[in-house]
Amino acid sequence: MAHSLVEQLRFTRNEFMRCIDGITENEAQQRIYPMNAIGWMIGHLADQENNYWVFGGLGKIVYPDLNDKVGFGKPPSTPALSEMLTVWQEITTTADIYLESLTPLVMETKMVVKGTIRKENIGTMVYRNTYHYWFHLGEAYSIRQLLGHTNLPSFVGNMTSFNYRSENQ
Fold it and tell me: DSSP for 37-79?
């Protein structure tokens, strides 16, 4: 069974996907300044997971050019929704291999990447990744409202399969 912080990250991923359900290719590429395009957000979140869990955790390189396209501090871009969804799916599926291995003790350690110790412990990195999703989830929801979408999902969604459980279990 995955660590409860990993379960929270998975729930948040589901909420993000629920938020963008029904967005069109054209809409996902629209940039409503100063916000980024929804397609960019999907790729950007995948890039963080690629950096943290796939490269940092597993030592694998998946989509090595993704950071140049959607990374923090890079010029704005409007990548295709279909492309970014494919990238996101592959990266999160691969990231889950690492995330599934996390234990309470490992969460308190710091990741070493290319001989450099990360500043935050792994548990804090999971927090940061989760909160990063919520930031962009709200932004994507706002963009959808500005695009005139109605009957959008209410947040937070169904949590019945993400019930709280003690780490002692």
Answer: PHHHHHHHHHHHHIIIIIIIIH---SSTTHHHHH-TTSPP---
Beta-bridge mates of residue 110: 121
**Among the listed residues 106, 8, 9, 103, the one whose alpha carbon sits nearest the alpha carbon of residue 49:** 9
CA distance 102 to 70: 27
Q: CA gyration radius for the chain? A: 16
Average pLDDT for consecutive 10-residue bins of the chain (169 residues)? 93 95 97 96 98 97 95 95 98 98 97 96 98 97 96 78 69
- Note the pTM of the prediction, 2 decimals: 0.93
| 3-state class (DSSP) for residue 120 | strand
What are the counts of helices (DSSP H) followed by strands (DSSP E) for the chain? 8, 2
The whole-angstrom distance between residue 5's C-alpha and the CA centroid of its chain comes to 14
Number of CB atoms found within 10 A of residue 6's CB: 23
Superfamily of domain 4-150: dinb family like domain (1.20.120.450)
Contact 8, 163 (CB under 8 A): no
Angstrom CA distances, 116 to 79, 106, 110, stand at: 31, 17, 10
Length of the chain: 169
